[in-house]
């Protein structure tokens, strides 16, 4: 096995620019959502959300609404917000010539 071929930058495959942007936004928004989830749920107990569904009978919440579901929904909501912000930033930082030409 030739080790020089693996270290040669001309041999390594390169990702297309759009895929690199999507990967960078996806990974950074995942990390932001992870941190945001930790901070939000350090201050907010999911049981409060579950009990607020029916204040008269707290155990009457739908079967699918449990702590794990609240954590999951919170994480994906934060990931979506971070991804939209990252994609909007990536779009707005592109030079005008690469956004598309108007005739």
Structure described in brief:
The protein has 103 residues and is mostly helical. 63% of the residues lie in helices and 0% in strands. The longest helix is centred in the first third of the chain and has 27 residues, at 17-43.
Q: What topology emerges from the helices and strands here?
A:
Elements: H1 3-7, H2 17-43, H3 46-52, H4 67-92
Helix pairs in contact: 2-4
Shape: elongated
The CA-CA distance between the termini, in Å, is 53 Å
Mean of all residue-level pLDDT scores: 82
SSE succession: HHHH
Structural class: mainly alpha
- Write down how many β-strands occur, each being a DSSP E stretch of 2 or more residues: 0
Number of contiguous helices: 4
Bin the helical content.
55-70%
Unreliable spans:
none
* Share of β-strand residues: under 5%
Outline the biggest β-sheet: none
